[in-house]
Amino acid sequence: MLQGVVRRIRQRALEELRARGNFAAWRERDFLHGESVDAGVVVLSTRGCAWALRGGCTMCGYVYDSSRQVGQEEVLQQLRQALAGLEGVAYLKVFNSGSFFDPGEIAPETRREIYRLVNSLGVERLQVESRPEYISREVVEEAVALLEPELEVGIGLETTSDYIREVCINKGFTLAEFARALEVCRGAGAKVKAYLLIKPPFLTEAEAIEDAVRSALKAARMGVSRLSFNPVNVQRGTLVEELFKRGEYRPPWLWSVVEVVRRVKARVDIPVVCSPSGAGTGRGASNCGRCDARVVEALRSFSATQEMRHLEELSCACKRRWREELALEVFLR
Ligand code: SF4
Ligand SMILES: [Zn+2]
User: Fold this and answer.
1) What is the full DSSP assignment across 230-274?
2) Using one digit for the tens of pLDDT, what is the confidence trace for 67-87?
3) How confident is the model at residue 22 (pLDDT cuts 50, 70, 90)?
């Protein structure tokens, strides 16, 4: 009898979810073609990342938001609903917490319909995300040919160190595979945005800063057109969360994030962006609690304008404690 009750509750909830479209969409500011612009972000719910379904990356819990049966017409319906609230944006980001070019998540015909819908919005740039193994000359050339706006492909490179990507992140691809995908995109006329992780598990704070800076400079030399830093936030059902619960992982200080962004921006001439999620909550990048909101706001303002002054004006008494921890952590390991 209880089984019948829970089944009815579950079915009703799933029907409601389908009716309202299980997607997220919002507006934000970003930097495009030399100026601060309105950007729209859509996160579609699809079957979920194939790599995550096989185990996936140590810090990623996105799959719990999306691992259910989602038909292709439902994916398009989510996008139509989301785009209705995003008129006037210059920069549109369509994410699916996985790979846009994975035909198991978004079928080729669905992709083509997405290009038609995006064309009708009149944006300057469309950004999607994909793991390198789904990036082929054929799919990128088709996208560039069918799209009126320019195309940017975001790839979660995380670090240029194959050792850290394999042992700390379990990313499942190498720098050489990233380099191949980068060349395919560039050859087809698409831009590439590299996502870099700040503080994967098993690194000290100081090691994480050095890895993020080194990786960004190398990715810039390889030819990416934008760098986006993701400080780790502790997501549910991940290895990082297990370590966090055992007191063996702390997300990065926001001061570390500021340090990485400042050092990189001083040495590259491409946009550098960072909008830490979950910052200041204990599960995301954080400082003392008193200055967190101010530092996150400064990182967002910097990302939307590329003006370093937003980061240079920051200060708080906790910065000294951060410096001390950087110097001491190696002994506490
Ligand atoms: S970080 Fe990207 S590749 Fe890794 S499991 Fe999550 S969605 Fe998949
Ligand atoms: Zn502080």
Assistant:
1) EE----TTSHHHHHHHTT---PPBHHHHHHHHHHHHTT-SS-EEE
2) 567 899 999 999 999 999 999
3) confident
Smallest CA separation from ligand 1 atom 7, residue: 98
CA–CA distance, 121 with 119 (Å, rounded to integer): 5
- pLDDT of 17 reads 55
Q: Cβ(62) to ligand 1 under 6 A?
A: yes
Distance 272 CA to ligand 1 centre (A): 21
Relative to beta strand 226-231, strand 191-198 is parallel
Domain limits, the chain:
22-332
Instruction: Evaluate if residue 134 carries a pLDDT over 60.
Output: yes
Q: Is the CB of 232 under 6 A from ligand 1?
A: no
Confirm whether pTM is higher than 0.85. Answer: yes
31 contacts 273 by C-beta, under 8 angstroms: yes
Decide: 105 and 70 in contact? Cβ < 8 Å: no
The CATH superfamily label for domain 22-332 reads: Aldolase class I (3.20.20.70)
The per-residue pLDDT for range 234-249, each reduced to its tens digit, is 999 999 999 999 999 9
146 CB-contact burial (10 Å; exposed 0-12 / middle 13-18 / buried 19+):
middle
